[in-house]
Design goal:
single chain, 377 residues, alpha+beta, 14 helices, globular
Length: 377
């Protein structure tokens, strides 16, 4: 394993590579086709290099543990608004998630429906491309000579265009209070309708999820989160509960620790931890989600983002994408055995024009094909 301690050393390692490199941050998200090659770790590139709470700006090296970032922000009453998921429980991995890995995978949680994705908070990047050249864009560098918006391009590129060395974020004040409205026992279709009603309301819902019931333990639960100042949250919770009364009995959970635990369970897909089967991530039109899930024969499903994101638990080795046929949306294989990931493409096939554009970008940034080759194939 190659583990450079500086950006310059990392650039030299990429420039001198004679074969494929497997880019690794904390090693907690082994998503994609099993890849061959020598491991190039960013774990040696750590530390917050700039944090200006008054300017709501944070800059950190890519290998910095996410927990360190969150602790520094919490001390100033701030947070990463996109609420990044922790994949360790779902994937059975260890180690510590890094901020570079969060960006590379564009990891976002339940608050995405209100605050946007990771890429929407990202304002600057530094990375090493496949030539071994250090490239910077955004943040304090206001003009990019290549003409590409590299900040957005690098988010979700999974290390196939460059190895991130530093990232910059716009952060936000953390809410001082929260409440979660809970409706139990709704079927999927009615739950999606309730979430759509809540999201269309003026009450600023920051989380809308539907969790499957566990056999013999509890009924399915539909969760709606409100955040902000205490008085505002209290008023909006009461008003939204009245609005949703037609869907069933609405309970309001106001304890901060309990609410935080509920939304960690959603964020990290906790109902699927330590379960048998493969896990797929579906991006769909919310109103289409219940019928699609029913047609796929999933063993269980968890709905987030008001139904726009569905986590589906299926039998091992099943090609869920093939079952989708001509339905809308796209599917990503997140958890499966190596043999399944070698046989079934992890990421949804792109339309021909988009695929051609993506291939052109890879040739531009990694002409030798050394950075995570075939990971996204």
């Amino acid at each position: 394993m190659i583990q450079p301690q500086t950006e310059a050393a990392l650039a030299d390692a990429v420039a001198g590579a004679r074969g494929p490199l497997r880019i690794r941050g904390g090693g907690t998200r082994p998503v994609g086709r099993p890849a061959a090659g020598e491991v190039l770790s960013t774990a040696g590139l750590t530390g917050i290099t700039l944090y200006e709470p008054g300017a709501l700006t944070l800059v950190a090296r890519a290998g910095t543990p996410l927990a360190e970032i969150e602790a520094a922000l919490a001390a100033e009453g701030q947070h990463l608004p996109f609420e990044p998921m922790d994949h360790r429980g779902l994937l059975g991995t260890e180690g510590a998630p890094t901020i570079g890995g969060v960006v590379a995978a564009n990891v976002s949680g339940p608050r995405r429906i209100q605050a946007g994705a990771c890429r929407d908070s990202l304002i600057g990047v530094r990375f090493v491309d496949g030539h071994g050249t250090v490239v910077k864009n955004g943040g304090r560098v206001m003009k990019n000579v290549t003409g590409y918006d590299l900040v957005k391009l690098m988010a979700g590129s999974w290390g196939t265009l460059g190895v991130l060395t530093e990232v910059s974020f716009k952060v936000l004040p953390a809410p001082s209070a929260s409440a979660t409205l809970i409706i139990e026992g709704l079927p999927d279709s009615k739950a999606v309708a309730a979430m759509a009603d809540a999201l269309a309301s003026p009450y600023e819902v920051s989380g809308a999820a539907h969790l499957p019931g566990a056999e013999g333990t509890c009924a399915a639960r539909t969760l709606l989160r409100l955040e902000g100042l205490g008085s505002s949250v209290a008023y909006r919770a009461e008003a939204l509960a009245r609005r949703l009364a037609t869907f069933g009995a609405v309970a309001v959970e106001r304890d901060a620790d309990t609410c935080a635990a509920l939304w960690r369970d959603v964020r990290d897909v906790r109902p699927f931890h330590a379960t048998a089967g493969d896990v797929w991530r579906l991006s769909v039109k919310p109103s289409d989600a219940p019928a699609l899930v029913a047609s796929l024969g999933a063993e269980a499903a968890l709905y987030d983002w008001g139904g726009g994101l569905v986590w589906a638990l299926v039998a091992e080795g099943a090609d869920l994408r093939a079952r989708m046929g001509g339905t809308g949306g796209h599917a990503t294989l997140v958890r499966a055995r190596d043999e399944t990931r070698a046989r079934i493409a992890t990421f949804h096939h792109e339309p021909a024009p988009v695929a051609a554009l993506a291939e052109g970008l890879r040739r531009r940034f990694d002409p030798r094909g050394v950075l995570n080759p075939d990971l996204m194939a």
